[in-house]
Structure formats: C-alpha cells, structure tokens
Automatic annotation (TrEMBL):
It holds the Pfam family SBP_bac_1. It is found in: Periplasm. SUPFAM superfamilies: Periplasmic binding protein-like II. Belongs to the bacterial solute-binding protein 1 family. Its main location: periplasm. This is Probable sugar-binding periplasmic protein. Transmembrane segments: none annotated. One of its GO terms (cellular component) is periplasmic space. InterPro entries: Bact_solute-bd_prot1, SBP. Residues 1-23 form the signal peptide. The keyword Coiled coil does not apply. Part of a binding-protein-dependent transport system for a sugar.
Amino acid sequence: MNAINRLAAVVALASLLPLNAMAADNGTVEVLHWWTSGGEAKAVETLKAQVEKDGFIWKDNAVAGGGGAAAMTVLKTRAISGNPPAAAQIKGPDIQEWGALGLLTELDDVAKANNWDALLPQKVAQIMKYDGHFVAVPVNIHRVNWLWINPEVFAKAGAKVPTTLDELFAAADKLKAAGFIPLAHGGQPWQDSTVFEDIALSILGPKGYRAAFVELDQDTLTGTQMVEVFKTLQRLGTYMDPNRAGRDWNIAAAEVINGKAGMQIMGDWAKSEWTAAGKVAGKDYQCVAFPGTQGSFAYNIDSLAMFKLKNENDINAQNDLAKVALEPQFQTVFNQNKGSLPVRQDMDMSQFDACTQKSAVDFKEAEKGDGLQPSMAHNMATTLAVQGAIFDVVTNFLNDPKADPATAVKQLDSAIKSAK
Ligand code: GAL
C-alpha cells in the first residue's frame, strides 16, 4: 500500500468511527446507573444518543444489579476517593443525604431556563431539591404495585385475573395444578421486599403503609395486620420457583414472557422486557394493580443527581444531560422503552401503550387522596439504613419456610429501631 492509499484507508476508517470518538473534547459526562437489562439498556441508549448528538462524550458507568445496591457501593467508593462521576442514579431521601455532604452541584440555571418548576409535579420537584436548589433531574415515574400476567398461560390453566389476595391464591393454585410456575421471582433482597411492600399496601391500605414505612410508626409495625403481611408473604413464597436464589428480575420476567410462569410481581420496569421482546400490552400480556391495591400508586422516581465538577467543558456536558433529560422527545422515547410514566406533566399520553396509559390515569386518581405513596423497596420512603434493616428481616424470613410471622414482626421492629 503506498502512502496515498494508506492515508485514504485511514480517512475511510475514521469515517466509520462514532462521532464521539472523533469529537474535540467539548466535555465528557460520566453517568453511573444500574440499567443493564436488555430493555433498560435500550432506554438509556436514547439518553446517550442525545448527549452525543449535542457534541459531548458519554462515559457509561453501568453497574449491574437490580435495585441498585451494587451501584450505590461503587458510588460511595468513588465519592470517598474524591472522584465521583458527573451524574449518578440517586433517588428519594438519599438525595438529601448526598446534598448534606456538600458533593452535589446546583442546577438552578438549567432548571430556570427550562422551567422545571412548572413542568414537574410539585411533589417531584421537592424531592429533587436540596436546600431549595435543584441538585438532581428526574427522568420518570415508575409504579411498583403491579402484577404482570401471561394471558395465554392463564387461559391454559383456567385461571382468572385476580383482583383480591384470595383470588391471587386461587389463580396461583390453578397455575400450579396445570404445571406452570405460578409466580416468577428472583431471590434478591430488593425483589423480596418489592413483593413484601405490595402485600403491605394491600393489607394495610395506603395510610397504614405510610405509617409503617414512612413514619416508622411502632404500633403499625408491630400490629396484627403486619403479622398478616408476613403470613401472606410466606404463603406466596410457596408459589415461587424454589430455584429462585440470586435470580435477576429480568430473568424472572423472561419466564413469564416465555410462558414458563404465569405471573410476576414487579414494578413497571418489567414492561421494558416485554417491550424489548416485541410483545404488546393488553394483548400479549396484562398489567393489573397488585391485588387489593387498586386506587393506590407506590411510586419510584428515577433521578440523576449531579456532582460538583471542576472542568468547564465537563460542566457543560453535565448541564446538557440535565437539560436533555426533561425534553419531550427524550421523555417519550426513554419512557416508552423503560416502562415508566414521563415525569413531565404536559405529555401526549396517546403515544404510550395501554399499561402506561392506565398508570397515568391511576396516578392522577391516587394523587387526589392518600393513594400516592413512596416505594420503600425502591429508596423512596426512608433512609437506606432503615431500608437495609427491612430487607434483611424480609429476606431471612422468606428464605426460611418455617419462620414464624409474629417473631418476624418483632425482628422488624428492633431492626428498624437500631437503624434509625
Ligand atoms: C429500581 C429502579 C428502576 C429499575 C429497577 C430494577 O430501583 O428505579 O429504574 O432499574 O430498580 O433494577
């Protein structure tokens, strides 16, 4: 190859490289998150594409592990060593804890220029602010209290879509008798507690749920209804696949999608897997409120908190990410893939599938009364320390089929006390 041909080859190769690899350093934004399942990775890809289109470099820091416990450990290590990423998926009350450490940057300029206060529900805007300043940008609203159903499996088993806990057990019996796994589940603490909180919402109602997991009210935590919650969890456990230990939530979702199992209790990120598999809401699968929680909406808001940076270009990239996250185009495509509701109030919901449309209606309904409650299992209701204490008790209980519900309630109470 002569010199001219070599040069031509280099130029041709360069044209194949993605734009970001060639871009002058306009700034890099490193994003730490745990969206690694097929469907969720597709959703986050839309954010990356937009940031790159704006001329910045996206440095992906995806830490596998549903619910984010592993990602939070990585984040803490990075922060302690004085090297936090530009943005990290931090949610709910935890935003206040990071804010108090003085590590988060104020996003007031972006927020003002893009009218965030008017765009966001007030409750959501409040969560994103530390000391009156925006320090995080929300991307969506997930609902946690869902039951996902494969209607073909239900039809084969002669099972009816449940609306009460009794009907849930009746459906599970039918599925079991027909040789299906009634309830797909992954034995990981956050998944166990997702089921636990749905049962609590069903049995205690939204006010009791709030008393237990937001107010940490001792009477509620130790009451007879809480014993009932553990009893119900234990009974549901007998319908879960015994090989569930350590299984990721998306693998459990795949069991329902592939017709091996009939149902999954999971937040609506589960829908991202159905969507990625090309399945249509309301036809190939059904989403119903977890039995007994109709009218309630346990919310889980994903948000990216922004850390203080020094480099001017990187700050520009960070601001771009914050701006893009609330733009209508991104809100549409991201949430179509993620399974969640757009967090903007002014979106055209006809672009979303039947489950998301139902979620939007249910959100508005729940908002009118006490129905709207923060998810304990997804870092929205309490500190990570208290949440960790609840996770331990719930998972130990579920892993021991002979465990005593009344004892579990006492353990829950003392674990919460020492974590407070
Ligand atoms: C939640 C998060 C969701 C989803 C889920 C499974 O905590 O808010 O976006 O990623 O974990 O990992």
